[in-house]
Amino acid sequence: GPLSLRPGAPVCALSIGVVISANGEFSVDEMQIVPSLVFVERFTYSQVDAALAAITNLELQMAPGPADADAVADADADADADADAATVDDETVGLLRRLEWVGARRLAYRIAGGAIDGVAPEQLPDVSIKATREEGELDGWAVRVGLGDASRDATQTARKIVTECMLLAGEAVARYADEREIALPFRSQSLRDDVGLEDAKALDGLCRSWAAIRTM
């Protein structure tokens, strides 16, 4: 459709511009919401993570003073293992670095405001579900469930960028509409009373993350 983000072609979009401060805040007075045309170049989570990791490893090697040789070697191995990094040009990496900065500031801002990420920082695995038509299946469809692309990198930087920017866009539009008394549809989650944050804090790892989400 006209609003589909088709790669390699200019497509219609609604662009939201905000100015992020060092502590992750933004002012509605400084934001813009405008119709736009964007040219999409699509990258996978793995490509983005590999590109950012490769730059970080290069900076580590070029840093003055003695470095941990094992750490540098491990970093090199991780970067070389994923050839996807070579598909992201320097200009794009620069933009991704800025988005990484925004994501980190926004995450810190949300945690300071009481987001559950402060209680359960470990992300639940990203899941990929694919359905394809195949003869021999009971209803003609084969469904495969596995870990998504965002789960393959330990840092999950790309996933954090996407998550924080999506939350940022939602907050920006909501605040913009609220100040101008523009009615918008929205959805919310009711709080559960059978599980509390203290219960989640008694757990570790992914169990803590799952329990924390259930308190929402």
Summarize the helices and strands and which ones pair or pack.
Elements: E1 10-17, E2 32-39, H1 45-62, H2 69-81, H3 90-112, E3 127-133, E4 141-147, H4 157-179, H5 197-201, H6 205-214
Antiparallel strand pairs: 1-2, 3-4
Helix pairs in contact: 1-2, 3-4
Summarize this entry quickly.
This protein has helices at residues 45-62, 69-81, 90-112, 157-179, 197-201, 205-214, and strands at 10-17, 32-39, 127-133, 141-147. By secondary structure, the chain is of the alpha+beta class.
Q: Top keywords for this entry?
A:
single chain, 216 residues, alpha+beta, two-stranded antiparallel sheet
How would you characterize this protein structure?
- With 216 residues, the chain is α+β, with helices and mostly antiparallel strands.
- The chain has a domain at 1-55 and 88-119 and 155-185.
- 43% of the residues lie in helices and 14% in strands.
- The chain has helices at residues 45-62, 69-81, 90-112, 157-179, 197-201, 205-214; strands at residues 10-17, 32-39, 127-133, 141-147.
- Strand 3 (127-133) and strand 4 form a beta hairpin.
- The protein starts with 9 loop residues before the first strand and ends with a helix.
- The model is unreliable at 58-75 (pLDDT under 50).
